[in-house]
Amino acid sequence: MSTRAAAGEYEDRSGPAIAEALHEWGATAASVVVVPDDEERIADTLRGAVEIGVDAVLTTGGTGVAPDDRTPEATRQVVERDLPGIAEAIRSAGLAAGVPTAALSRGVAGTCGRTVIVNLPGSVGGARDGVAVVGPLLAHMRDQLAGGDH
After folding, report:
1. Residue 24: C-alpha distances to residues 8, 29, 134 (Å)
2. pLDDT tens string for the chain (150 positions)?
């Protein structure tokens, strides 16, 4: 989520980093989409992914304290069930790696239908660290959301 990257002012590097990191966990990123920091546009993009049956949406950016950081608010509009442990684990991993600003992340995680939605930090390192937390859980979450056994 970045207004400037969406406008072509700079290249999005976090989205491709997430796609690459997901590949290491056996997942395939169907697409990388750059959306401006606009709460309704973000929420609409998430709803669109849910409607077409995407297993997981990992967002990057817009989770900080800047006035236009609205990704968590947009995500809350879409999420039906919270997964607070994932968001907490992502922040904890950042803090454990010596990144004090990880405590400022307001990212959330949850599900809508059979889709998992997770907000990751906007930095390349933070996005990769977030995938390191989420990656091992993806197959299990997908199985659970499809009604699989524990």
Report:
1. 28, 11, 12
2. 888 888 888 889 999 999 989 888 888 777 889 998 999 999 999 999 999 999 999 999 999 999 999 999 999 999 999 999 999 999 999 999 999 999 999 999 999 999 999 999 999 999 999 999 999 999 999 999 999 876
The answer, as to whether pTM is greater than 0.70, is yes
| Residue that the structure tokens 């990751």 belong to | 120
Alpha helices in the chain (DSSP H): 3-6, 14-24, 39-51, 71-78, 84-96, 124-134, 138-145
In 3-state terms, what secondary structure has residue 7? coil
